[in-house]
Amino acid sequence: MDTRGFYDGLADRYDLIYADWDASVTRQGRALDALLTAALGPGPHTVLDNACGIGTQSLGLSALGHEVTGTDLSPLSAARAAREAAHRGLALPVAAADMRALPFADASFDAVVCADNALPHLLTARDVRAALAETLRVLRPGGLLLLSTRPYGDLLRARPQSEAPHVRTDPDGRRTITFQLWHWHADGERYDLELFQLLPAGDTWTPRTSRATYWALTQERTAEFAREAGLRDTAWHAPADTGFHQPVLTARRPGPTGQDDS
């Protein structure tokens, strides 16, 4: 499936997936900021959000004072993130870029965020390794990776076929209905996600459908890939402990002597 096309098509309506997108921006920013501060000390920190989408994490972190740069495979999503930042009076430079080939110098950032199940769009070990190698390269010594995915260990056991519909009601009382179908591949690890949205159109609905493919990488395999790339001190943090909506992996680039520079 075309990942860029998936997110280009969603750029003008991705926020409708959330019951309250602005509240999610604030909540996710605070959760990631707490992990950043615990690992690196008080900020502000220079942060790359290398799958920024329309800015859900970037905006929240920027509002808390961090110097955030956003990149995304989807130019339309990155452009919307920039518009949302400008609307909020925030500085958020963005660029369209592939996480496997980041347009930044070595050791450019204190932290890299790769959130909201972005890494599993990479469907081969080679691509995952390339993305994590780029993450390591642009992190300063002692820098931090914050990466979130779905809880794929549980999902692989359950093999869900769908996700329950949810309804978003805007201030004018108009409702948007969003639901998902999951189509598992024969390998048992990859799946196509079919996202349906019913948008209000007067007295009727306008259906919109988008489709993308994911690799259901377990936490153990994801951490193993991170260690293979040269990242250290890998640890998973549960949503109940962080307030973030997905499990978050933290990992560090070793310092000059192989130790953290915290």
UniProtKB/TrEMBL annotation:
What are the residue boundaries of the Methyltransferase domain, all occurrences included?
47-143
Q: Has keyword Transferase?
A: yes
Under the GO molecular function aspect, what terms does this record hold? methyltransferase activity
One Pfam family name is Methyltransf_25
Mind listing the GO biological process terms from this record? methylation
Location of the region described as Disordered in the Swiss-Prot/TrEMBL record = 237-262
Is ATP-binding among this UniProt entry's keywords? no
Assigned keywords, A-Z: Methyltransferase, Transferase
Protein name (database record): SAM-dependent methyltransferase
